[in-house]
Design a protein that fits this description.
Strand 1 (about 10-15) and strand 2 (about 20-25) form a beta hairpin. This protein has one domain (about 10-255). It contains nine helices and three strands; from the N terminus they run E-E-H-H-H-E-H-H-H-H-H-H. The radius of gyration is 18 Å and the shape is globular. It has helices at about 35-65, 70-75, 85-100, 125-155, 160-180, 190-195, 200-205, 210-220, 225-255, and strands at about 10-15, 20-25, 105. The longest helix has about 30 residues, at about 35-65. By secondary structure, the protein is mainly alpha-helical. About 65% of the residues lie in helices and about 5% in strands. A three-stranded antiparallel β-sheet has the order 1-2-3.
């Protein structure tokens, strides 16, 4: 099952200090269409690169502000995507899986941004802000891509490539926003929950982290994350974005 822009599901993950992070997509189309693949890559490349790069840089930057300079000193707080892309996990693995599974399943990961929570001013509290930074910047990007789409449509731009790129930017960032907020470590939502829970419950949840990725992947494979998390949260996010940008759409129409 895949999501297109308006109503359908994609899964994308990227957690700030997990050893694996990236994108997983399950599709019903069995045959690999090379032309469609090239077209999809060309449309999604820029939005996904921005989504991943800013997500990772945001984690490192907020960690720097809250007292941990690990990522800062390693040069990982940068907008250069080369510092965040893992050649095998971001490029080779997704391409191989796409061909082998005929587009049925796609997964990849980027280089993790190192965060030493013990260096933070207040580790339990500041962990929340560091974790929120990634999904937060993805939500901001979704808003900006939405604004760009409105502007293009408002000015009568009919070039399909640019319109589809804006839609891809909205979708990619909403997916990253929603999936990363899943409340299980090492995803960002799990770290936020650890920071919010009382110490006893937080320690218990943090012990799940070594197996958290495998648990999440199992939930993805069985469709549980789709049905009970991604679909509701993505639907709510899309509706919230439309509601938030309604005044802008009205002003744009009024001025033209």
């Amino acid at each position: 099952m895949c999501w297109d822009f308006d109503t359908q599901p994609i899964h994308q993950r990227c957690s700030h200090c997990a050893p694996t992070r990236g994108l997983s997509i399950r599709c019903d189309n069995r045959a690999v269409d090379l032309h469609a693949l090239v077209q999809t890559v060309s449309i999604y490349a820029l939005p996904v690169i921005f989504a991943i790069t800013l997500h990772e840089a945001a984690h490192g930057y907020v960690a720097h502000l809250r007292g941990d300079d690990t990522a800062w000193m390693m040069g990982r707080v940068t907008l250069n995507p080369l510092y965040h892309i893992d050649p095998m996990g971001t490029l080779v693995l997704p391409a191989v899986l796409y061909v082998v599974t005929a587009g049925h399943f796609l997964f990849g990961f980027a280089r993790p941004v190192p965060v030493r929570f013990g260096n933070l001013h207040n580790p339990k509290r500041d962990m929340i802000w560091v974790a929120l930074a990634g999904p937060g910047i993805n939500l901001v990007q979704a808003v900006l891509w939405y604004l760009a789409l409105y502007v293009l449509i408002g000015f009568g731009v009919e070039e399909r490539f640019f319109l589809e790129m804006c839609k891809a930017g909205i979708l990619a960032n909403v997916v990253m926003f929603a999936f990363n907020l899943f409340p299980l470590p090492p995803l960002d939502g799990g770290r936020i929950l650890v920071g919010l829970l009382p110490w006893k419950q937080a320690v218990w949840l943090s012990r799940v982290e070594p197996w958290g990725f495998y648990i999440v992947m199992a939930l993805v494979v069985f469709g549980i994350v789709d049905r009970w998390w991604m679909m509701p949260l993505m639907g709510l996010t899309f509706e919230s974005l439309r509601w938030l940008l309604t005044p802008f759409e009205f002003l744009l129409k009024s001025s033209l």
